Fold this protein.
Amino acid sequence: MKLLLSALLLCPFICGAQNIHKKDLIGKWYIQRMVQNGNVVIDRSDENAGLQTAIKRMRQNTGYTADDSLAVVDNYHEKIKTMDNIFMAFYDDGHLEMTNMYGGGQAIKDQPKTGTYKLDEATGILTITADGRDDDMKASMHDNMLVLSVDETYVKVTMEWKKK
């Protein structure tokens, strides 16, 4: 009975995320949601969630004005518009293309960056090499979404990507 109860309690953690294999990555993925340090930065299914985070961050700064609030709202809606251009494309040969970004999270159209990737299927660690640096992240599949997580000392970011 204890074994069955333990299995039922652990199932949401074990069954929710699936192991990932290189063949799962192959294709073009578009960003759907990003959470940074527990705050929704952007969410295609609930645009207001990310907007509330942006306004909350702005209000943490002293001296904000109504004009600042309008600028935050406008900037956020511009980011939502660029989300259609934010992608990662994985190829069989280990080659990778991804959206070229500049400060502020804005996508530069028609100028994808290239690099390579390597997936350790045993650990789920995805290493992306681009611009002369390696970035490691935890990769998993959940509800047909690619979930990438980075958990460093000062920042924890989770991104969900959908294949189109």
